[in-house]
Write a structure and sequence with these properties.
Length: 306
C-alpha cells in the first residue's frame, strides 16, 4: 500500500471532524440539570377541567378565612416550592409552610389562612398567592370581599382647559369598585360649543384611587370665552360635577387682526354713545331768555280830561 499523499493527509482531519459531528448529532441530547420542573399550582378542589380560576374568600373585618393551594409535581424528581403572598390581599395570607417539598409524581395541598384586617373597609380587595420552584414562578389570583355597608362616592376635580385639551382628575372616595361614566358640555358667549352625552370610561377605579385623565377637544374655538362642565356618575348613586373657564384669543399672526376687530367694536360703541348724547340734547326745549321789564301805567278813566 502506497503512503498517503500530502493531499490525502490534509483531508484526513477534515473527514474525522465530520464523522464526529455526525455521531454527536445522532446521539440523544443530554438532559439539562436546570430544566424547569413539570409542575402546577392552583386553588384546591375540582379537577383540571373545572378547577377554580382563583381563590375567593369573603368575611367581615377581623375574620380568619381558610383555603388550600394545590401543588402538583408531574416530574421524575422531588420539587421544592417556596410560597408567599403578593399584593394587598396577598399580604393578608399566611401559609402552613412557606417551603414545601413535593415528591415526584405527587400532589400536595398546602393550607393557607387569610386574616381580614380589623380596619379593612367593606369592598373588594385583590392579590396573589405566589409559588416559586424549578426555575419557574406561578401566580394564583386571590380575591377577598370584606362584608359590610358599601359607599359609592366619586369626585371630579382639577378641571383645566388648555387649547384643544380638557384635563381633569377622578377620585374614588368610597369603598366600592367604580366604573365611571362621563358627560362633557361647553358653553360660549353665543351658545353651546360642545355637548357630549354620558359614556363609560375605559377604567375601573378602586377605592381610594385617583387618576388623571384628558378629554380631547379638537374643534375648540379660536376666539371665545367658554365654561366647560364635567359630570361623572357611577353605579350606587355616585355623582359629581365640576367646571372650569377659559378664554380663547387668536395667536400670532392673527393677534393684530383680533385687536383690530376689538378696536372697531370699541369705536362703534363710542360713536353710538356720542350720537345718543347728541339726540338727547336736541330733544330738550330751548331755554327762555330773560325779557326787560315793561313800564305800565293805569288807563285814564272815561270822561276824564287829559
Amino acid at each position: 500500500m502506497s503512503p498517503p499523499t500530502p493531499r490525502r493527509r490534509r483531508a484526513l482531519p477534515v473527514l474525522t471532524a465530520a464523522l464526529a459531528a455526525l455521531l454527536c448529532g445522532l446521539a440523544p441530547p443530554a438532559a439539562a440539570d436546570d430544566a424547569p420542573a413539570d409542575w402546577t399550582a392552583r386553588p384546591a378542589g375540582g379537577t383540571d377541567r373545572d378547577a377554580r380560576p382563583y381563590v375567593y374568600l369573603e368575611g367581615t373585618p377581623g375574620t380568619v378565612l381558610q383555603d388550600r393551594l394545590t401543588v402538583t409535581n408531574s416530574g421524575r424528581a422531588p420539587l421544592t416550592v417556596r410560597l408567599r403572598g403578593d399584593g394587598r390581599a396577598g399580604g393578608w395570607i399566611r401559609f402552613a409552610e412557606d417551603t414545601v417539598t413535593v415528591p415526584a409524581r405527587t400532589r400536595a395541598e398546602v393550607p393557607l389562612a387569610l386574616t381580614v384586617p380589623h380596619d379593612a373597609v367593606p369592598g373588594d380587595s385583590s392579590g396573589e398567592a405566589v409559588a416559586a420552584g424549578g426555575g419557574e414562578e406561578i401566580r394564583v389570583p386571590v380575591r377577598v370581599r370584606t362584608v359590610g355597608p358599601t359607599l359609592a362616592a366619586l369626585g371630579v376635580e382639577d378641571v383645566r382647559v388648555s387649547g384643544g385639551t380638557i384635563r381633569y382628575a377622578l377620585v374614588n372616595r368610597g369603598n366600592a369598585m367604580l366604573r365611571p361614566r362621563l358627560a362633557v358640555r361647553a358653553e360660549g358667549v353665543f351658545g353651546t360649543l360642545l355637548d357630549r352625552p354620558e359614556r363609560p370610561l375605559p377604567l375601573e377605579l378602586a377605592p381610594g384611587r385617583r387618576v388623571e385623565r384628558t378629554e380631547p377637544w379638537p374643534d375648540a374655538p379660536a376666539l371665545d370665552a367658554v365654561t366647560v362642565r364635567l359630570r361623572v356618575t357611577a353605579s350606587g348613586g355616585a355623582r359629581d360635577e365640576a367646571e372650569a373657564s377659559a378664554t380663547y384669543l387668536p395667536v400670532a399672526p392673527a393677534v393684530g387682526g383680533g385687536l383690530l376687530v376689538l378696536g372697531g367694536l370699541a369705536a362703534l360703541a363710542s360713536g353710538a354713545y356720542r350720537r345718543r348724547r347728541a339726540g338727547r340734547a336736541a330733544s330738550r326745549p330751548p331755554p327762555v331768555e330773560a325779557q326787560p321789564p315793561v313800564d305800565t301805567e293805569p288807563l285814564p278813566k272815561a270822561g276824564a280830561k287829559t
